Amino acid sequence: MKFSEFSPESIERMLNPKRVQLSLFEMQRNRGFTEYFRTPRPAKIITHSSRICMGQLSWTGDSFRFTSQGLSGFIRNRQLLVLAFEINGQDHYTQVTSRDVYHDFFLLGAVPLRYHKRFDLNVQATVIPVSPEDTYEFMNGTLLIRRRKRSTEPQTGIHYFVHERAVQANGDYTTAISESSAPAFAAVLLESSQGGCSLTITSEAAKALHGVKMIYLNTSLTDGRRVGNLAVYGVIRSLRQTAKGVVVRIHYLDTLPLPVEELTGSIKRYGFMFEKRAIAYVNGKKYTAAGLLTVSLPLGRTVFKVDWGGGNITNTQLVVNPLTANILAVSQDFGLSEQVLPKSA
Questions:
Q1: HEC string of 90-143?
Q2: Of 226, 242, 265, which residue sits at a domain end?
Q3: Tens of pLDDT, residues 107-140
Q4: Does residue 103 fall inside a structural domain?
Q5: Would 316 disulfide with which of 114, 251, 306, 331, CB 3.0-4.6 Å?
Q6: Cis omega (within 30 of 0) on the bond before 259?
Q7: How far is CA 141 from CA 135, 168, 176, 264, in A?
Q8: Which domain holds residue 236?
Q9: In sequence order, which residues have a C-beta less than 8 Å from that of residue 303 and are 6 or more positions away?
């Protein structure tokens, strides 16, 4: 099955605080940049497939020009690119588009601030914070992230529109990130574009993001023909407190290879019958359970914790099977058979 792989450099570029992100509009308006690049300076272009082209960046008087040998076949017109260069030991990068591409140079075009149009979704999602230790391993290449599109997971039968997973550098899959049982919390995916999304989470869940730079997002969607999941990594851009919770802006590691405007939410509701009163935490969201508890769950794994009182706490991961709509317990310490009977609702 074909997959694409994110380079450690591209992840580090998004996360490193010593690197300056700016727009081409800012560069064109800043006399310091235009004067500096009147003399051609070393720079590089990075494509979304992580191909790198070294060259020279210069200011022509009305536009920036990138010069390098053998550009034909490597860069095409109106291609979305990342430009990277260094000034006084500090790395700078900006998104640009290519225009007027010739054999050995092309002109840089500006990317609109909202290059990707956002679409409302308002759908339940599961968020798993990526630890600083794992984030560092992504940046140094010990862990890699691979993306598959339009794939089906054999074990669960879940169809994925986009499925990103962590792998060891030797190619072995690891379950340390995308399938860990904790921590995880519920979120509402408010909107998404091909480049990023906005989520709302509770103030309590926001505490779990302290010191966190990356998250893993999973939600169920449909394109009108087939139900599938979006399971991707993202970089946290900002958190903002509102009356309805904390809004988190997320930037995907790469542009989604599908038209977001065709997707809508496809979350099913499931019922859990409690024979006695308990406190249930579904992806970190608290419920008081007595009798039938109905919750919305995306396809795939859900972290389920129940506090029965008296220090009796059970934890598990539940898997929603999309073929049968049944819920399966995938850990051995939950005691579903006697106390909680899951059923489709």
A1: EEEEEEEEEECCCCCEEEEEECCCCCCCCEEEEEEEEEEEECHHHHHHHHHCCE
A2: 265
A3: 999 876 555 677 888 888 989 899 888 888 888 8
A4: yes
A5: 331
A6: no
A7: 10, 9, 15, 35
A8: 119-265
A9: 126, 181, 182, 183, 184, 281, 282, 283, 284, 315, 316, 317
